[in-house]
Amino acid sequence: MLRVQKVKVDDIYVPTARKKTLHPETVRHLAEDILENGMKTPILVRNDGKRHILVEGLHRLEAAKWLGETEIDAYLVQAKRH
After folding, report:
1. CATH fold of the domain at 4-76
2. pLDDT at residue number 78
3. pLDDT mean values, one per 10 residues, the chain (82 residues)
4. CA–CA separation, 46 vs 54, rounded Å?
5. The predicted structure's pLDDT at residue 18
6. CA distance linking residue 22 with residue 72, whole number of Å
7. What is the pLDDT of residue 48?
8. How many other β-carbons are positioned within 10 Å of the β-carbon of residue 78?
């Protein structure tokens, strides 16, 4: 069973290919929703032994950064690199 844990946003590596899918307008709308309703779904990260790598939740992560959050709720998953 997955458990939510707090992860520092600065400790999460976002692969370059994932960054290309970022839509700033989506981040802004999501940030507004998080302010009103809170973060509903934790992001997914995997650990490669050195750092946390984003698996899912780029827009949520960027919205948290935009809001000045230093930590974010995340599920640590075992995922293979694509």
Report:
1. 3.90.1530
2. 86
3. 91 92 95 96 93 96 97 90 58
4. 7
5. 87
6. 18
7. 87
8. 7
Which strands form 71-76's sheet, in the order they lie side by side?
4-8, 71-76, 43-47, 52-56, 12-13
Cα distance from N-terminal residue to C-terminal residue, the chain: 24
Cβ-in-10-Å burial (0-12, 13-18, 19+) of 64 comes to buried
Q: Give 5-72 as a DSSP string.
A: EEEEGGGEE--HHHHTT--HHHHHHHHHHHHHH---S-EEEEE-SSSEEEEE-HHHHHHHHHTT-SEE
Residue 81's pLDDT is: 61
10-44 core/surface letters (b: 16 or more CB in 10 A; e: else): eebeeeeebeeeeeeeebeebbeebeeeebeebbb
